[in-house]
Structures are given as C-alpha cells and as structure tokens.
Amino acid sequence: MIVSLDWLGDYVDLPPVDELTERLLLAGLNHEATEAVGADTAVDLEVTSNRPDCLGHIGVAREIAVLYSRPLRIPAAELPEAAAKAAVAVEIEAGDICPYYSARVIRGVTIGPSPDWLVRRLATVGIASVNNVVDITNYVMFECGQPLHAFDLARLAGRRIVVRRARSGEPFVAINHKQYELTDEMCVIADGSRPVALAGVMGGADTEITPATTDVLLESAQFAPLPVRTAARRLVLGSPSSYRFERGPDPAAVDWASRRATALILELAGGQLDGPVVETGRLACRPATIRLRPARVAEVLGVAVPSERQREILQPLGFVEQHAGDEATDWLAPTWRRDCWREIDLVEEIARVEGYDRVPEDVAIAARPVQRSARERLARMVGEVCVAAGFCEAMTRSVVAEPLEAWGSPWGRTAALVCRPPLVRGADRLRRTLLPSLAEARAGSLAAGAAHGDLFEIARAYLQRPEASGAADSPVAEPLLLAAVTGGDFFKAKGLAAAVLRRLGLPESAAAALGDGLGQSAAAAVGYRPLGSDLFAAGRAAEIVLCRPELPERRIGVVGELAENLCEASGLTAPVAAIELRLDGLEFLADAEPERLPLSGLPAIDRDINLVVAESVPWAAVVAAIESVGCRELESIGLGDIWRDAERLGPDKKSLVVSLRLRSHEATLSADQANSLVADMVTACTRATGGVLRR
Amino acid sequence: MSHVSLEAFVAELDELRTEAERNLADATDAAALETARVSLLGAKSGRLKLAQRGLGQLAKADKPAGGKHFNAVKQAVDELFSAAQARITAAAAGPIAAAIDVTLPGEPIRLGRVHPLSQTIRRVAAIMGHLGFEVVDGPEVEDQWHNFEALAIPAEHPARDPLDNFYLSVASHAEPLLLRSQTSTVQIRVMERRSPPLRIVSLGRVYRPDTADATHYPMFHQVEGLLVEPGITMAHLKSVLRSFASSFLGGDVHVRFRPSFFPFTEPSVEVDMEWNGRWIEMGGAGMVDPAVLEAVGYDPDAVSGFAFGLGVERIAARRFGVADIRDFYRNDVRFLEQFSDRGQA
Q1: Global pTM?
Q2: Rg (CA), chain A
Q3: Do A28 and B158 touch (CB under 8 A)?
C-alpha cells in the first residue's frame, strides 16, 4: 500500500516522515520505501493479509492516530435528499458470491479532467488519471479501501444490473480492451443482456465512462474473496480492486464509499443525484464481541500492561467497551477489524501498539537434556565416511524430469508420484532413487571443469505404498537414502559401500551373500548378491542384503556401474560407479554399543594357499567353506590375487591366492599346528567348491 | 690479584655450550663447520681456550669444581663437533640426487566437504540443542490437515491455492496430498503424539512454487522451533532467540520484534537481529495460536508456547557470502569445496 503524505495529512497530523515510518514498522506496517513524487511524498508500506483496513489512507491514518494519541478526522460524506426512486433495477442471482449490492445514479454529469490535487494524489500512489468520475472511484477506494465501479448508465441494456455466475466460455471484454473467456467459478455484473464487469476485478469496455457519458451508475458492493481471487488469478487480471476484495474491505465502508464518491462526483463533475440508493441483499457484517481478561496480556507477553493503558489502546482502534467486569471486559470489535474476534487478537493489538521493545529479553528457560535421534546420528555417521573418502555432499532436487525417472528404482515398482505444477520446468516426478539426480550433478560438475565429480547425498525417496498395504498412516513412504557416485568400476563403489557399512558395524558375510543367512556368526551382517536393474550395467551390479538373527533378510542397498544409457542421458562420458543405501530401518545400528574384542599379543602366522576352482565358484563360496571349519585361530581371510591361464589351469578355471592369518589367544602357534589347520580348510574348500591346491 | 667467581666461570661455560649446540647442529656444510670449529675450539683464540684461562683465575678452593665443569663442557663440545663432522661427511659422500626437492607436491589426500546448507542446519540444530530443543522429523508428502487445517489455514485461504502449492494425486488416497509448504507440519504431528512439555526443532526440505531467482528456489530448507510448556510468554521467545542469535553470530546480540501475521501464531512477529550495527531479518515467530493448541488437543489456558521459523538458505547465503541461492543446488564441486566446516557443529 502506497500512501501519499499530503493526502494522509487530511485525516491526522503527521510526525516527521522518518520517525513515522520507524514507528509504523514497529507497529505492524513494514516500511518498504519512501520516495518524493513532485511536492508530495509516497511511502510504501507492507500490509499483511489480515489487515485490509490499512489498504486505505484512513486506515493508515487511524494507526498513526492511535500510536501518537492524535485525533482522527474522517470526511462526512453527506448527500442531498433525493426522493424519487431511480429507474434502475438491481438483482442478485449469486447471493453466495455477492451478499450485497448497491447502486447510486447521478445524471447530467460532465466528464472531463480531474482537478490537480486529485491527479497529483493519485499519481503519488501510482494511479494514472483517466477522467473525473473514474478518478473519484479510485480516489475513494484508496481513501477507505472499498472498491467502487462507475458504469455509463446509457449503455446498460434494460437499465438493469444482474449479479450472477459467469457461464462457462462466456466472452468478456475488459476495460483494457482485451477479451477473456470466463468460467462458472467467476462472478459477473451483467446488464439485461451481457456481462458488463467481472465482479470485484475489472469493469467492461462497453460500459466504461467516456467523454460522452452523462449518466452514471455507481456500484458499491460486497464480493466473496474466493471467486474474485479465482478470476483475477486465472485471467491474470489482478487489480487494486481484486486485491482488496480478496482480503475483505470494511462492510461499513460499502455505503460510506458510495456516498463519499457520489458527493465528490456532484462536486467535481456536476449533475444531480437520481433517487436514493438502490440496494439488494444483506450486508455481511457481524463484528465480534470479545471478552478480554486484562491479566491475560501479561500471561502472553511476559510484561504487564495496566488495564487503563489497554483501554487507551483499544478505544481509538475502534473497539467499543460493552461491559467491564472485575476480571474481564467485553469489547465490540470495529467492522473494519474482522481479524479480531478472540481474546488473543486483542492481546496482539495491545502488544503491537504498546511496542514489543517492552518485552524482556533475558528470561531464562530451564535446562533440559536432549539427545540426537538415532536417525540423525545414522545420517551423520554415513556422511562422515563419505567426506573422509573425499566425496562432496550434494543437494539435488526431490522432483525430477520424467526421463530421469525412467530407470526405475531399487526400492519398489509403484509409479512415481506426479506433482502439479512441476517443481521446475519439466520436473514433475517425485524421485524414487537419488542415483539419476547424482549422475546429472556429477556430469554438471565435470562439465564445469571441476577436478572431480565424486558426490554423495543424503535425502529421501518418495514411494507410493502398494494399494493393498492398508494400515499405513500415509500412502507414501519416504525412506532416507545415502547415494554416492564416483568414477571407476564396481569395486571402487563397493569399497565405499563396505566402508560405510563397516562404520555402521555391518561386516560383509559370505554366508549372507550365498543366501545361507548368517552362517556361523550371530551378529548382523550384509551380503552382496548379483543384481539385475535398469539403473546398472548388466552383470556389473549387486544388491546389498542385510541379515539379522531371527529376522527376515532385507535389501538395504545397491552398488554397481551405472547403465551406459543412463550415463549418456545424464551427460556422462566416462564410466560411473554408484551406491545407494537405505538408512531407514538401520537406526538400531546407531544405538548399538560397539563390541570390544580381546586382542591377542601372540604372534600371527600368515599362510597363502593357491586354490584352483571353476570360474563359476564365487569368492564367497571359498570364504564360506573356510569359515565352515569353525577354526578359532582363523583371524582373517584375504584375497591375494586371481590368476587365469587356460593352458596351465585348464579352461574355465581360476586360481585364487587366499591369504590366511592364524593366531591363537592361548599360545604361540607352531608351524605344524598352522599347517594342520590350513589343511583342514583346504579339505573343506575342496568338498564345498571342488577347488584344489595348485602345485 | 682478584679472583673470578666460580658462578661467573660456570655461567660462561654454560653459555658457550649452548652456543656450540646451536652452531654445530645448524652447520649444513664443511665451511660452516670449520668456522664454528675455529670459533669454539681454535687453539689460539677459540672460546674454549679463552675459558681455560679463566680457570687459572679462580680461587684455589674453587679450582677442583671449576676444572671438573670445564672438562665436562669441553668433552660435550668435542662430541658435538664430531657428530656434526660425521653428518656432513656422510651427506657429502652420498650422491646429490638423494637430496629431495621438498617443494615437490605431497601425495594428495582429497578432502570431502559437508554441503554448506547441511553445515548451517547442523549448526542451528546444535545451538538449539544446547537450549534443550530436540530435532524431530516428519514426512515431506503431507495431507491437508497437517499442512493447513491444524495450522489454522481454512479451505478458502489463499495459501491453499493450487497455484501456490505442489499438489500430488495419489491413487489410493481420496484427498489430494501435497509437498509440505512448511515444516510446521511436523510440529503438529509431534503435538498430536506427545504431551507438553515440548521443545522441538523440525527441519528439512519444503516446497513452494516460486520462480527460481537469486533469492528464491521452489525447494528450500526451513528450521522451525516449538516450545510448549505451562507459563511460556513472549519474553521467553525473545530470550531464546537472543540466545540463539548470540551463539550464532557471536557476542551479545540483541533481537527485536516487528508485528507480523502468520495463521498459526498469535501474536505474530518478524524477528530482526542486530548485526554490524544493522537490523537484519532473522525469520518469523510468535506465540502458538490457541486454535492450533486446541487442534492437537492441548488446553490453551493450561499451556502456552512459542514457535519460530528460519530460512536456512537465507542464513547460509549471508553467512557464506553467497549472492545467488541457486548456487547451493548446482552441486559444482568447485563451489562445494570452498565450504570447510569450522567445527562449530
């Protein structure tokens, strides 16, 4: 709301402008700018949506009058008596949209330029002068906040006004001379044959005031906010009028504005008032009676305001004391303050006028112990590993374009949710995996010339629950995911996955990989199993399966080399490996106490064995076979090398160098003991995998 | 003939030993070593020779102790010289190529980084944690009750306009869901589940259809705090925000309230904090509206509370001097690598 200081001074004596804007800022009218316009000063004030009363100069002047305890001067708006009834008919068909409509008719006006003072004041608030009658309707709107519209009566077919819903597809030419197609969500003012105004938004070109106009019908009405807003937004036709109707002008100003504008027309454009007001419908106006306990003010603000001071604030704001009791006073709210209907609203009025600077800023609150949630700690733990591994944290959009969604998700088959409007152009799918977004981010970073594009992100995916799932409180699951992308092959990504899982206390288990549950171990562990997925290159990906005692196994991650066509679509030229882990359901790991194992101070014995197995035997099968011996002295199993030579090993064979570390907690192992233990392991391998020692 | 005191004699010898240690240890070539040798051990006017003369000037009774000390120092200096000589001879004998170019780069260890928005969120959460606020979490896909109705935003409210929200159609759900437009939804969910006293911070992504520009992005992060306990007033709100601002900016920071309007708080205020002599906008706050307390089944006469919200992007942009918040979402590693967490959270 831009106010003219020259104009504002009509209603209240003003303090210096800088002092004034600072005071208003601290009372609820945020100061945006002060600008000289000719000899006048325009002050731009931000008016919150609950304060339509401040969308007119009088409302702002009332605030100033209250803040500075100065008298407020409101013009009288008196009209001459007019006995005969005007020959116009007003009818409301859409009472839900327009509860009240009034018309005054002024005949014999002379349309011409407005006087300088009027042109200047409108110019200050940013409105161009049109002619005296149109300018007066604008002037009164900016004075009291009630929009008005003036029709050329001679052009109203049948001298009739009908307020009705628009018909779907009905055409309308507005005063901007553009044609619009209306819908039945909108409300129009029609004459005997066609729409002549889009209710509350804009008048029509056919009936606008022109230099030829002699008879004027002045509309002042109430319109419901929603249809006005709908029309203004759908047709991109917002106006100072629609802005005010969307927020609800003062009901008592409907008639005042009509009288005030009529009086000004008679004064500035001549003519004669034709009959009293023609009105129909009932003005919606139900000011609230509010019970205020004066003691409540201190209970909310933390600082007392004496009840006499409370009265000094409320009365000039327009609240009328109805009944004062010992502990509470009833106040009738002014018609222009429909935002005030409860005790707390009065408390806020008292607070903002009294000033929040009176609220103390050094009141202690009791200390309270706080713990980080398991989920928060889990996210920290996994993020830490990625940062330590040299990855930068990315933040990508939750909503992606359809092509990026086409690769599916490791987390479910239900379709992606679609949002309207799209988050950004073309991006309307809520993502079900972070991988394509990260691939795209990696491509962007590399294309920009970054030294690397190793990125990770911790964010949610959005998965529709299958319809049958029933009991869940939301139809959408939002698992928290960790995803990372890096250049290189499967094993680079698996190394990161393994590090993250180790940090969480989840070791890799050969038994879990082979689908044998946990094997010898009683602790939770993960296994890697081959995965077929459109996200990854064929044969170059694994799912990570979590096995826990007594619980069904569950996929918690995927790792692999991204599919070539996905890389291409993301703009990546070199191979990319990626991981994605589901953190939801892993909270138990954030709460697990680390298990402390006793360390043996005795020397270890390292033995390498060369085991020749069929190409189809996975490493996990070898590990599982060795572990199946249950040797307490076996400390670790490592892979030394893989070697293939069809001539020396035979076709479809590979030689694995298995590094075994043996150590006892009781006594130093002898070479013979070690040899005997290793021999048992080799036997187990031969039995389970057909592998033999290479000579 | 006057005598030299034993103390002065010992002090001079000790000083000589210190100097010898420094000069001989620092010698890196034969020339420097020779200079040091002449100065210390020279047969005619070496420091040690001169000191030996002082021995003769000691009182007779002091001579045994002085002599003993002299011998100890002489031996130490001789050893230092031999060690330095051995070191330099060995270096000279080896091939020159064995000396490394210490200006060559070390083996690189790449440092990852936490995203600047994450750093900001962590820091805010850490400060609020010290004030007893616990971080809570809730869904981003919300229903209309939690995003609007329970927050006193009725059906006809402009904030619910389809053009101002990201609505979703979900096959199995009659009522349209939407991407939450504020994290206050989480506060409702927590209040529905738990009873006061309550101190929580909800933080995360929120969504509003703004056109992306330097200060807007249709997806951004909010931090919202909520405290509900008996007897809570705006003075508590102001004090907590002042503590927060002081901790965040450092020093004793003042805050001020400007009246504002939010559907779910009453009174509502904008909060400014004083920074470098200027008031800068911090966020919105207010006392939890009684209608919100009632909506979750609390008695507004028995408990009261306050809520406040901060825009993470805005705080981070100011803290890190980022002029365009879209940079936070470009994920250019060159950008991300500039933000080293300074251990504040």
Answers
A1: 0.86
A2: 40
A3: no
Contacts of B340 in chain A (CB under 8 A): none
The distance in angstroms from the start CA to the end CA of chain A is 93
Inter-residue contact B320 to B212 (CB < 8 Å): no
Q: CA-CA distance, A478 to A403, in Å (whole number)?
A: 21
Q: What is the pLDDT of residues A439-462, one digit of tens each?
A: 999 999 999 999 999 999 999 999
- C-alpha R_g of chain B: 37
Return the DSSP state at A424. Answer: B
Structure-block tokens of residue A99: 């509860």
Q: For residue range A480-519, what is the model confidence (pLDDT) as tens digits?
A: 999 999 999 999 999 999 999 999 999 999 999 998 877 7
Rounded to whole angstroms, the Cα distance separating A405 from A433 reads 8
CA–CA gap between residue B322 and residue B215 (Å, rounded):
10
Beta-strand pair A89-92/A160-165? parallel
Round the average pLDDT of chain A to a whole number and report it.
94
CA distance B257 to chain A (A): 6
Complex confidence, ipTM: 0.89
Dihedral-angle region of residue B161 (phi above 0 means left; psi in -120 to 50 means alpha; beta otherwise): beta
Distance separating alpha carbons of residues A561 and A563, to the nearest angstrom: 6
- Chain B closest CA to A57's CA: distance in Å? 20
CB A662 within 8 A of CB A633: yes
Joined together, the tokens standing for residue A331 give: 């106040």
A225 prior amide bond cis, ω within 30 = no
Question: Tell me, what's the pLDDT at A489?
Answer: 95
In the beta sheet, which residues pair with residue A610?
A657
User: Which chain A residue has its CA at the smallest distance from B138's CA?
Assistant: A478
Q: Which residue type sits at B77?
A: V
Nearest to A395 among B117, B133, B199 (CB): B117
CB A482 within 8 A of CB A456: yes
Distance separating alpha carbons of residues A209 and B307, to the nearest angstrom: 51
What share of chain A has pLDDT > 90, as a percent? 89
pLDDT at A520: 67
Which contiguous run of DSSP H or E holds residue A34?
A: strand A30-37
What token pair was written down for B76? 């130490």
CA distances from A368 to A295, A325, B193, B305 (A): 29, 41, 20, 16
Query: First vs last Cα of chain B: how many Å apart?
Result: 74
Nearest residue on chain B to A51, alpha-carbon basis: B261
Candidates B190, B207, B183, B181; CA nearest to B121 is B183
Residues A279 and A286: their CA atoms lie apart, in Å, by 19
DSSP state of B86: H
Question: In chain A, which among 389-448 make CB contacts under 8 A with chain B?
Answer: 389-399, 417-421, 423-424, 430, 441, 444-445, 448
**Spatial CB neighbours of A590, under 8 Å, sequence gap ≥ 6:** A374, A375, A377, A378, A381, A504
Nearest to A360 among B139, B235, B333 (CB): B235
pLDDT tens per residue, range B179-233: 999 999 999 999 999 999 999 999 999 999 999 999 999 999 999 999 999 999 9
Q: Which residues contact A296 (CB under 8 A, 6 or more apart)?
A: A343, A347
Q: Do B233 and A299 touch (CB under 8 A)?
A: yes
Q: Closest Cα of chain B to A357: distance in Å? A: 7
Q: How do A634-643 and B141-142 pair as beta strands?
A: unpaired
CA-wise closest residue to A394 among B17, B283, B334:
B334
Strand, helix or coil at A683?
helix
**B139·A474 Cβ contact <8 A:** yes
Cβ neighbours of B173 in A, within 8 Å: 475
For residue A352, give the chain B residue with the closest CA: B259
Helices (DSSP H) in B216-344: which residue ranges? Answer: 234-249, 290-295, 312-320, 333-336
Determine contact, residues B191/B296, Cβ cutoff 8 Å: yes
